Amino acid sequence: MAQQIINVGSGPDTGTGDPLRTSMQKVNDNTTDLYQQAETNATAASDAQDSADAAQLSADNAQTTANNARRLRTPPSQRPMTHRTTQTRPA
């Protein structure tokens, strides 16, 4: 809906502007329109965030798959050694 402008008349007490009831109806209509637009924008933002999260998850999964495939192609003799340290108990 388009914004409804309140006609304030040509001057005070001229009787050329919108009556009070009509003015308040326009205020209510304008406010309702703003709230509806805010809800629409919030929904769109939430949907966009959901899409971005899904894309990030997909990218993370693709990277993990690529890393796993790279590890499987590397012969065991060329893989980096991992050392486990053991703690000794005091005597």
In short:
This protein is an all-alpha fold and 91 residues long.
Protein traits:
rod-shaped, 91 residues, mainly alpha
Architecture overview:
The protein has 91 residues and is mostly helical. The protein is built from 1 helix and no strands. The protein is rod-shaped and about 100 Å long.
The major sheet is characterized as: none
Give the N-terminus to C-terminus distance in angstroms.
83 Å
Element string (H = helix, E = strand):
H
Shape: rod-shaped
The number of strands is: 0
Q: Report the β-strand fraction as a percent range.
A: under 5%
Q: Catalogue the unreliable spans.
A: none
Helix content: 55-70%
Oligomer: single chain
Structural class from helices and strands?
mainly alpha
Roughly how many Å is the radius of gyration?
Answer: 33 Å
